[in-house]
Design a protein that fits this description.
Helix content is 28%, strand content 17%. It is an alpha/beta fold.
């Protein structure tokens, strides 16, 4: 939670993401939004990304939720269904990070 800028972020998208996002966004009194300002996805262990399904049209139908990913994770999400649909439908907007 970034209280100074009224933003909230998550590391990983677990199957409990809907409840976790609701809890995090309650810290931001200026927002009626129940979607965090971004999700950092570190790797493709199944418990770390499956919560993304709740951002899709069958659930929240989120709009351009920022997903911060390393190149391998970006490739995984872009080349594997149903995850690629989240990007195509703009439920998630991927931002590639690189090691420096």
């Amino acid at each position: 939670v970034d209280a100074e800028h009224h933003k909230s972020y998550m590391f990983e998208a677990t199957p409990d993401i809907a409840q976790q996002m609701k809890m995090l966004t309650q810290f931001n009194a200026n927002s009626a939004n129940e979607v965090v300002n971004g999700i950092f996805l570190t790797h493709a262990h199944i418990g770390h990304y499956t919560g993304l399904m709740y951002l899709g049209k069958e659930a929240m139908d989120a709009r351009e939720t920022p997903g911060y990913v390393m190149p391998k994770m970006e490739d995984f999400l872009l080349t594997n269904g149903p995850w690629d649909q989240l990007v195509k439908r703009k439920n998630v907007q991927l931002h590639k990070m690189v090691e420096q």
